[in-house]
Amino acid sequence: MNAKQKDVVATIAINVIVATVVGILFFLLAYILISGLPHVSWSFLTGTTDSFSGAGGIGVQLFNSFYLLILTMLISIPISLGAGIYLAEYAKDNWRTHLIRSAIEVLSSLPSVVVGLFGFLLFVVQFKIGFSVISGAIALTFFNLPLLTRNIEESLSAVPRNQREAGLSLGMSKWKTEIGIILPVALPGIVTGIVLSAGRVFGEAAALIYTAGQSAPVTNFADWNPMDAASPLNPLRPAETLAVHIWKVNTEGLASNAAQLSAAASAVLIIAVLLFNLGARVLGNYLYRRVTASK
Amino acid sequence: MEQTNSEFKQDGAPTSQDWARQLHHATRASREDWFGRGISYLCIGVIILVVASMLWFITSKGMATFTQNHVNLWQFLSGTNWAPDQGHIGALPMIVGSFAVTFAAALVATPFAVGTAIFMTEIAPNKGRKFLQPVIELLVGIPSVVYGFIGLAVVVPFMRHLVGGSGFGIISATFVLFVMVLPTITTMTVDSLRSVPRFYKEASLALGATRWQTVSKVILRAATPGILTAIIFGMARAFGEALAVQMVIGNAAVMPKNLISPAATLTSQLTTGIGDTIDGTLPSNALWSLALILLLMSLFFNALVRLIAKRGQLSHER
Amino acid sequence: MGIAAISMLLVGCGKATSSTSSSKSSSAALSGKVTAVGSTALQPLAAKAGSQFTSKNSKVNLTVQGGGSGTGLSQVQSGAVSIGDSDIFAEEKAGIKADTLTDHKVAVVGMGPVVNKDAGVKNLKMSQLKQIFTGKITNWKMVGGKDQKIVIINRAQGSGTRATFENAVLKGATAVKSQEQDSNGAVQKIVATTPGAVSYLAFSYFTNKLQALSVDNVTPTDNNVETNKWKIWSYEHMYTKGKPDKATAAFLNYMSSKDVQNSLVKDMGYISIHDMKVTKDAKGVVTNN
């Protein structure tokens, strides 16, 4: 076999592999959507859940998922941005930096159930915050941090050196260069990373069972004062998310149509993640154009 | 000096004191720099604090089995009888189970992930970016519990017809994990392939190499450390995955005899048992010891990836 | 023992009447935070009753969570939560100082063995059931079913459901190592789809996709549990540490009130504590009331 033939064979092999992967992906998506979408209705999306059987709508859970996601991102993006800048700019190539990197990677590979139990024993029990949105958001932040930090560092490091030198030679500080020049260029990469981690946060169940809790008290959606107990924005109320709801319906659900309910909720979850991905992508491109003034 | 200075003064130019002040005091730029440095140090400090407290927490809990309950470490690692309620703490079945599913899943997933990544970067970059990447990113968002139930509804019966037995076991877990780690390994491999400098590829093609020769001899070679990192990350995810594996592996704390009999992993045992144990008792401590093993394993994986990356880099530069 | 049981029942009834009046009269006054954590088997009932309770007492902030009986008992013992939900007696759990906790039995749950429909078995002797779960009988043919290998699906070690089953069926013998699942839903799905599978479930999880077994020709019904003809059942406990605060006490009263016991409890497939004609103590000794 000469080089040309090898090339043809390899290309075919790769195409077969990709076809298989695409096949699996589409089977999965189709399976979830086809088994779930027929059971999705407006009343399912906005209705409240029967706390006993798990039957009924998922309105509160859907809101909780997004609220928890936003809260998690509000906490984790600034911290990982700072940490990412540290690793990309300030960290020297020595054993201490290696240790820090290893520590971050270890954090990312911890099983989420362990993170959940840690959050439970520390925030829920020790600090007496209780099963709450904020406990859940902090637990999610724990394994969001390593993913985001790593991603931000990589996106920043991928920006060509001369951009940095240009900034510094203009007499700008390192910090200003980083924020004003490097960060905007790295933005699309960072946004992709945020999207990826958001997907993971959205689908996380094991870490939330013991922190944000498994109950979704009916909230008063007319009350937007975060201090009121019944307000959906109150960070101290327990909040069952969509993924936890799917887990619960599947494991302990007593509703006769539990299978359909979980399929429908899974379909909604997938679509929500899809919309979120698309939205973030559009936003990322828009920001990129705005900040870099490139058309 | 004074005179010249005064002359300068008359002209409205800075005095030496002005110069000194300027030179000794921080400029706006360097103040900004200190500010920025402070912020980024603070952030990394927060992360280190989180990691350290987790490490301390899991270690202290996991060590209690040996320090408080006086279980022999060797017995814990080599024993095959896991019945904490009766005081038997042998974690070997779970250790073997975890390793088996992790390596099997990585072994199956790697060719698929690397093939897909080559397709996305070298063969059809446009289709890759517009179509494959969003779909793969979407897969990351499917909750593991959904993977678990699809595994239970589709993979387990399929394996039962294909290879016999009850369908629960390492082979089903491998299949579910393969799909779960595929996005992780693929996206990271794509990143590392994209970061190979363009001129490598151009030089190779200019020398008359075919696309496959360029990909296999130049691009994959240059991206090897990145790909290995991707695989290790995939393995770390497989190692730590709990809910999905738990549904399809069968959770039997016995030594896996073959790929199709029920087995257990560290995470599946941890998830199954933790709600039913009492804080501070042997069954609870024993489960935390399993968590400690998980932690040590991921430390080990990390050390491995550093070693490989370092070697790859060296020979690559040579 | 019988007297104690009766007096407990009477106290329960007395509380029931007082709670209905108190929840009406003191709806403005009663306030506080009540957190009930633990047993996933009790969680649905507690959650539903809880939402009814808070609709009458809007000032009370009541949260019901699962997490497992072990979690419930440890957390109530450490004082982190006001109520620990459990499927088993605190005395049965090593590491729990049962004498520091107060038991409030709020319902009874009957459990029974279930098999995959293909197994061809509808009734087993108690001794056969024991031999299956200890690994002595490995094929359905040996107990009059099809020639099919028995696949045992057990519950997680230390879980309340497993403890109840093993107390009633194995009586001290050790179960053979097998698959373990930690939830009713998972067991339900696995037994329905796996040929030759056998496990056990709470009555409320029986479906027409499974074959629920009779044991010694006794059918698994609520009536048989009430008279202890059906042996595999347990209480659902709500444990408090010491004297509960006002809001917690009111909620516990509400749980044992007729409102809950006669409607909610039955609607949800539990058995009312008031209907029991026998009492079981922590050692498993059953006495007639």
UniProtKB/TrEMBL annotation, chain A:
Origin species: Levilactobacillus spicheri
PANTHER family cross-referenced by the UniProt entry: ABC TRANSPORTER PERMEASE PROTEIN YQGI-RELATED, PHOSPHATE TRANSPORT SYSTEM PERMEASE PROTEIN PSTA-RELATED
Example of a GO MF term: phosphate transmembrane transporter activity
GO cellular component: plasma membrane
Topology versus the membrane: Multi-pass membrane protein
Location in or out of the cell: Cell membrane
Membrane spanning residue stretches: 12-34, 66-87, 99-123, 129-148, 179-198, 258-280
Residues in ABC transmembrane type-1 domain copies: 62-280
Protein name (record): Phosphate transport system permease protein PstA
GO BP term, pick one: phosphate ion transmembrane transport
Chief location bin: membrane
TrEMBL record, chain B:
Pfam families: BPD_transp_1
Ranges where the ABC transmembrane type-1 domain occurs: 95-305
Molecular functions (GO terms): phosphate transmembrane transporter activity
Transmembrane segments: 38-58, 91-114, 135-156, 168-190, 218-239, 286-309
Gene3D superfamilies for the chain: MetI-like
Topology class, membrane: Multi-pass membrane protein
SUPFAM superfamilies: MetI-like (SSF161098)
Protein location: Cell membrane
GO CC, one annotated term: plasma membrane
Free-text function comment from the UniProt entry: Part of the binding-protein-dependent transport system for phosphate; probably responsible for the translocation of the substrate across the membrane.
Protein family according to the UniProt entry: Belongs to the binding-protein-dependent transport system permease family. CysTW subfamily.
Protein's UniProt name: Phosphate transport system permease protein
Lineage: Bacteria, Bacillati, Bacillota, Bacilli, Lactobacillales
